[in-house]
UniProtKB/TrEMBL annotation:
Lineage: superkingdom: Bacteria
InterPro entries xrefs: DUF6924
Originating organism: Dactylosporangium salmoneum
Pfam families linked to this entry: DUF6924
The protein's name: DUF6924 domain-containing protein
Residues covered by the DUF6924 domain: 11-134
Length: 147
């Protein structure tokens, strides 16, 4: 079971248990990033979540005020960039995109503040291989379909 969380927390669920040292380093690094916005990382380190998918995570979080969370899976620990899986829990529960630790702050802060929607990250922020890496990216300009 996952704990109750608030939107200010960066929820990170570990789904791969192959490298304890890498997990510890990742948690320390992400908390240092979140310190920039005075937020707290809530790492979930429980073997009950081994192999958990984005859709599975969406099914385990029932709080309506939590719009997103992150998974640390086998790719996170096997890829040198350590890309996390950002998971939509609000508009399209289970939809996922990869985000590197360098891009984590923008994704976490943007979704928490409501400055960006998950589909915008998936459609416009991700670069090659569907991974958001870093940088401040504005959504595309609004086009009024009635003009």
């Amino acid at each position: 079971m996952l704990p109750e969380v608030s939107e200010e927390h960066g929820l990170l669920v570990r789904t791969d248990f192959s490298d304890d040292a890498a997990w510890d380093e990742l948690c320390v690094h992400l908390q240092q990033i979140l310190d920039n916005i005075h937020a707290i990382l809530l790492p979930i380190d429980n073997p009950d979540h081994v192999g958990l998918t984005p859709a599975g995570l969406a099914g385990r979080i029932t709080q309506s005020d939590v719009s997103h969370a992150f998974l640390a899976d086998h790719v996170t620990f096997s890829d040198p960039e350590r890309p996390l899986v950002a998971v939509d829990l609000y508009d399209d529960p289970g939809r996922a995109v990869r985000v590197t630790p360098a891009g984590f702050l923008n994704v976490q802060a943007g979704l928490t503040a409501g400055n960006v929607l998950f589909w915008e990250i998936a459609a416009h922020w991700t670069a090659e291989q569907g991974i958001y890496r870093q940088g401040v990216v504005s959504p595309p300009p609004y086009t009024n379909p009635h003009l």
